[in-house]
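Input (PAS domain S-box protein):
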Amino acid sequence: MKVKDYTTYSTLAIRQECSLKDVAVLLKDSGLEFIPIVDESQRIQNIISKNNLYNLMLDQELSFGSIEELIKDKFVMVKENDDIEKVFPIIDQYIVVVDDEQRFKGVIQKDKIVKEYFHSKQYLSNEFHAILDSTYNGIIAINKNEDIIVYNHSAEKILGVKSEDAIGSHVCKVLADSRLPEVLKTGERELGKKENFNGRTLIINRTPIVMDKEIVGAVAIFQDITDLKRVTKELENEKNVSEILRTIIDNAYEGIIVVDEEGYITMINDPYAKFLGGNKEDIIGKHATEIIDTTRLHIVVKTGKEEIGEVQKVRGKNIVVMRTPIYKEGKVVGAIGKIMFKDLQEVNVLASKINQIERELKYYKAALKEVSGAKYSFDNIIGVSDALKETKYLAEKATHTNSNVLIRGESGTGKELFAHAIHASSNRAMGPFIKVNCAAIPADLLESELFGYEEGAFTGAKRGGKIGKFELANGGSIFLDEIGDMPHSMQAKLLRVLQEKEVERVGGTKNIPLDVRIIAATNRNLEEMVEKGEFREDLYYRLNVMNIYIPSLRERTEDLEPLIKYLLNKISEQVGNYVSKVSLEAMKYLKSYSWPGNVRELENVLERAINLVDYGKEIQVSHLPMHIRKKEGSMKIKGDKELKDILEQVEKEAILDCLKRVNGNRTKAAKILNISRSSLYEKLWKYGIE
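Output:
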């Protein structure tokens, strides 16, 4: 769909010299949200919104003078041939439709987009339910949680349970002995199963619902064959059963055929005759094998055993049939055949429809997640090491609870990535995900940022106040990064929020209830800070419920190769320069490096290298930073070197090791090495240490 399909074309526009009175009249009469301002060539210059006009009227007396003071609104221009998807991210702004020369053509009304979107989704839903409810067979489908998501009218009639009582309930509450959970678990189909329910005989097909190679549910399609069996019994006991049976069969929708004890056709209904391409008069009296070369009705007469849910090829089509022997006084006197499904694909079509609905549901859930703020999942956490697997296992366990989580690890290990993944996989995934860096916000502003403030709470406070991060996260999760850097005075206030599960805005008197899951992260030693009195012990225990430690890159070197492969693809796409791989020699250098900056440093090194490599080539040693290249050389001391070179190499190793231990703090390194800072800087320059 294009923008023009949702455009209200209009020539209604004003010039810069128009008066406020003219604007007010136009907005009132047109019913539009805003009026565009154009020049002599009808090119858009600005807009005036009805909302801005109202605000001006509230703030001061409207003078009906110049419109200059009203031109404050921001707007976005889109071309009429643009795809409508371009509008969705900016739907909350004023949108003006223009041609290729930016001449005003019309406006997009938001209510029209919302209304058409609602109608399209309603039509799809109605169409799907109409298909289900017009099907003679009963249909029940469950999701991964074994809750009923589809339950049609035929299921109501056969099972005697109303749809409103079944939808959303666990399947075992509606059908205590249902085998759908088993099909969901094993992924194996169960076709043509004969079962009794409340004195009625049902033929049931159960099939797993597979989407993207994952079982997401199961569907059962069943028929009530009680009436057919009753007809067979009446055939044994009633002299006039032939006429009764003929009437019933001819009015049945499904194809039905009857043979005698010799296998000759004594009865066939119109649907079956039409399916075979003939008429009843020509078919009746002939042997079943003359009409249907693949028939087994004459065999069922001999064996006396019914065959249900068998696949049979008739006239080039695979159909699902049932064959039932007819008994009289304990002796088989014939057999009845019935087409259960005229095409083997019918079951798959129904399962496909349910798959389509599930895919749409998954899409809109993903879209809602994107809006809520969580960008990453556990699929974005790359690694094969046991250390990382253990960390991911603990993080996935944390998704099943609402307990607070404390993520520990060095800088650059991916603490925020884990926080995103925990939220996205939890039952709060549909709620907001709010991020706060406690170290980046000044101490005097942190309280108002976290808890919000009321109007007039302090000098410079916004009119109407401001909602805090905790309120924004209500119903979802809040990620408190660098929690170890939170001022001591704020720790007590945060503790109260955690204990009372409510927040009071700065300058406010009302307590606002909260339903927020806390995910905190730090690279500092909180236990040591507690001992020194720098971090509250009670807050530490409140946060440290689910403790997740993320190992550094040097603790999981086996993750380097898969991580490098993943980052190459990601960064190549971002910078627009395709790199095929990392050479074996360069990979040795990367593996020998200690990575004090962890994954963040690795990503930085790879991005630098990708920018240096020619398109389609591989990363060589020469593309790596000097401190990584020299690191490898320093590890290979050979006997041919002079003492001076060996001493310099050892000195360089000592400096690098010290810098790593103090996280690059050169002042601390100089103190530990017992040299002046100027001497340290000279040696860093000498050895090419960055």
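The chain has five domains: 3-108, 120-224, 226-341, 373-551, 558-686.
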